Amino acid sequence: MLYEISEKIMRLESEGKKIIKFNLGDPDQPTPNEIIEAAFEAMKQGKTKYSSSAGEKKLREELARAHKVSAENVVVTTGSKWAIFSVMYLLLKSGDNVVIPTPYWTAYELTAKSLGVEPRFLRTEVGSNWKIDIEKLKGLIDRRTRLLILNNPNNPTSKVIDEKVLAEIVQIANDEGITILSDEVYSDISFVEVKNILDFDGSHILVKSFSKTFAMTGWRVGYVIAEKELAEKMVKLNQITLTNVPVFVQQAALKALELKEEIANKIRDEYRRRADLACSILSKTKMKFSRPDAPFYVFPGYDGLNSESFALNLLDKGVAIAPGTAFGDHREHFRIALTLSEEEIELGLKKICEALK
Ligand code: PMP
């Protein structure tokens, strides 16, 4: 469906139509100049060769320091997407199952299926603020459950898991011998505090990215923090696949970490303004939505809506959204990404409201 939408966008744009693109989770801000300069400097210094498949020592050490682990627990990856794929590839085998709360970021399901692993969906609902139901979670677990994927804050709902609920989830995982893969790529720009999975007992896995915090989606740099044994396996997988994240990109990532507070604050403030604007418009409608705790998304729903046909028809009115079915069985919902200017958000939402009448 997302493919069909992109095709239609391309066709309409080639006909000269302007589309307000609420469908992309790619920040509209440019990568900060200091980060670009750091990459350029590194290239000029000859950092253009093959290098370590674990990541550059200095970057791993900085990340280790930030997360209070040892550098041998850190593996630098080509975006967090590769980190997620690698963890699932290494931990799961055909016949296993993985628990994934819905709505979810599509790659988890597609990766599980590509490995012959059964995705077991733990449905959450807007009515309960997308809260994970502990009893439902228990009911999904059996002896072939190997992994639980948490996305905190969540794409597409932008909700952060309540600390008490998270503690209960971790307790269950620890009791059942299940590993948690916690995808926290939006946590550093969250509007509310996010409790890190590494703050809990158990050998769980954290995945993070430079993409969202620093507007660096195209640079392809992320990382994983895992127990030494798994980290070593990931390095071996990197050796036979991507070799290494370009060293000049890692040098840029190091600069990004240095400027993290300043950059993250700016991005967070910008998205908070956009989220406030979107919520104030949505709250005047009959749409059901939950206020985002983090950038970049809002996931409104409308009773009886078929978000797939709605998304396709809306394109003719110049607005692109992602239907809820792209994130699990959530047909009445759709995702809007606030990766647009306030003017575009206002205009786009106005058109959405009119189309729903
Ligand atoms: N996790 C989530 C929840 C995402 O939304 C995305 C990107 N949309 C990623 C991981 C992957 O990001 P990247 O590979 O750029 O780090």
Which CATH top level class of the largest domain fits?
Alpha Beta
Helix content: 40-55%
Summarize the helix and strand pattern as letters. HEHHEHEHEHEHEEEHHHEHEEEH
Shape: globular
Report the CATH topology name of the largest domain: Aspartate Aminotransferase, domain 2
Number of domains: 2
CATH architecture tag of the largest domain:
3-Layer(aba) Sandwich
Euclidean distance between termini CA atoms: 24 Å
Query: Sheet with the most strands?
Result: 7 strands, mixed
What is the number of beta strands?
A: 12
Please report the number of helical segments.
Answer: 12
Beta-strand residue fraction: 5-15%
> Order of strands side by side in the largest beta sheet?
2-8-7-6-5-3-4
Low-confidence stretches: none
Q: Structural class, from helix and strand content?
A: alpha/beta
Radius of gyration: 20 Å
Bound molecules: 4'-deoxy-4'-aminopyridoxal-5'-phosphate
CATH homology group of the largest domain: Type I PLP-dependent aspartate aminotransferase-like (Major domain)
| Mean pLDDT across residues | 97
